[in-house]
Amino acid sequence: MQFPRLPIEKFDENGLFQAFYVNRFSEHLKKYHSDITHPHKHDFYLTVFFQSGKGRHDIDFNAYPIRPNAVFFLQPEQIHHWEFEEDAEGWILFHSEDFYRFYSAHFDLYLWPFFQSRIVVPMLEIDSQTAEKLQLRFAEIMDEYQENTAHSFLKIASLTQLIYSDLSRVYIAKEQQTDSGKNSRYQDHFHRFTLLLNQFYTQHKNPSDYASKLAMTTKHLHRICLACSGKSTSQLIAERLILEAKRKLVSESKSIAEIADELGFENYPYFHLFFKKHCGETPKQFRERS
Hints:
single chain; alpha+beta; Jelly Rolls; Arc Repressor Mutant, subunit A; six-stranded antiparallel beta sheet; two-stranded parallel ribbon
């Protein structure tokens, strides 16, 4: 099964293609319902704020609950879909990386904690006070988006930055509650590790390879990974490989042996054992079930 990849141009509602979109979630459902209820991926960054509703949001083969005051963050190429038990309402916005860079030249997207890597948790639950503030910011963005007057998109980008700033404070505070040992230096090293992992996971599968690239000992990298994710370096490497394997198994028609080769495994039997060890089923069983 080939998962569709939705380009941001599909949602160019104002006809000017500013690589930005915002809408009430219920209205978004009415227009694009057939797309979002089936697994798909995007080429843009997406944020959804639920004010009401109940259901499940599947992101990269992990399930998260949909409920009031839940916020979700998606990065390009993440596979996801929605399943609802009750009608949902809230806000949705997304934008391309180019849009963000054009209007926010001095603060990179990856510096927001929820966009730092594919490893971070893509869900945040906020309190009622933050939710009220978020509602006002989204409503103001919607007004500018619909009016589309002079400097509208500059204001939209500024309001989006404020939304990210508000949510980042809550996101970081929750991280600190669960692990007081984290610090900015560790986070910086961890981010550098995740960038290297996304670049080299098919070539380098040993923690020592990444420690060497980061000019630190394997033990120190292990300590950083545990502090920032609660997982060892080896676990994170394995999870990145498994995630890509799952994506390929469900979205590409290539043989399992071809996929194993693309992921840098020396032979199919080793990939078979690796996948079963981490997933509890064989690649073939996963493909047939998905």
